[in-house]
Amino acid sequence: MGHSHSHVDESTLTRPELRRRKAARRRAVVLLSWILAPVAVLTMVAMLVMWPHADNTPEPAGNPYAAAPGATINSGKVLRTATEDCSLNAGGTAGTECFIAYTELPGMAEVPVLISPDIVQTRGVNAGETIRYLNLSGLAAVTGAEHTGPVYIFMDFVRTLPMGLLAVLYALVVVAVARWRGLRAIVGLVGAFAVLAWFILPALAQGQPPLLVALVGSSAIMFGVLYFAHGFSARTSTALLGTLFGLLVTAGLAAWAVDAAALTGTSGDYGYQLLNLTQGMSLSGMILCGLVISGLGVLNDVTITQSSAVWELHEMAPHTSTRELFTSAMRIGRDHIASTVYTIAFAYAGSALPVLLMVSLYDQPLLSALTGAELAEEIVRILVGSIGLVLAIPVTTAVAVAVVKATGRPGRGPQAALAAEDAAARAPERL
């Protein structure tokens, strides 16, 4: 979803007009700082109070992918593949066929790795790929019993190289198109994930109030991301104010919806594991925190776009009345709402596609399927995020219009300024 923001060429303005415009922008920043500075201080204080302490951190669980004594996990390049009798190399039952990936192992020419049927059916393993597999060849020496069955078993693919290349390509494309601002956005994204990893997740694991953790963590992320990527300006501060309002609305709706819709968080694959690892962490609280965080990106997008739209409209036509300016900006906002609602819905639908497919294969009424445990969380996420997003647009627009009108001075506009300069340049010709 792309947005184009046309900027007025300030080289066409006279020096007095430029000075007035810069002074108006400074006044706007000061005006907004009176509102945002206390919020920033409160956010920092709340983060310090709730900052996770090492002595309260749950004991780390063992690596679920660690091998048992006598077994190892190896990685190697697949040299060749074959479908053959399981009893030949895989250690299986004679007369049954197995898909074998002959893979390199240090100190040995190749070892026969048994590939599970689900991998064979969905994708298969090809020569030249790197895989991770379980090596049970040393298990007999530890247990004292002869090992029967497969000795080398497929675990997973090694995806480091393709995912690394994709990440580098993404960074290069963003920087090439957005340049310095794109680079700052990527650095800001890294900072946002640092807040998520070092504050939000540990605080949830230690039993801090999920709603407060979500609000404080999300506010800290938005302060850092918006100002770092877009700079300190009245536009950015206006967008931040609209974003914080959207966060409050989303958090309030999420707190009500999680309880009213009885979202327990136990329908996922990791629910009971989290309960055991965190000594009874509230899974519904984790869902609540996730509902707030999931809408940050789109919320930031619409508020910064709407704030920029108001400023551009005002600079193009500074004599426009407050009512006309708000109406013009909201026309842009309504188009943005229409496109963003589809963006949120299809983004969540795509991520939940396996669940949607499973539900569609069940013989049950549509209403029961949509309100069942498998889909209820995603649907509530879409509805809560969309409501907060939609309400943030008129609020951001109203704040931006108020700031522009309170701090800006009516000017002649770029066309009038250019015409004045042309008239001044032609004055000697008429003498």
From TrEMBL:
UniProt key word Kinase: no
Source lineage: Bacteria, Bacillati, Actinomycetota, Actinomycetes, Micrococcales
Keywords: Membrane, Transmembrane, Transmembrane helix
Key word Nucleotidyltransferase present: no
Protein name (Swiss-Prot/TrEMBL): Membrane protein
Pfam families attached to this UniProt entry: YibE_F
Region: Disordered, residue numbers: 409-431
Transmembrane segments: 28-51, 160-178, 185-205, 211-232, 239-258, 278-299, 340-362, 382-404
Coiled-coil residue spans: none
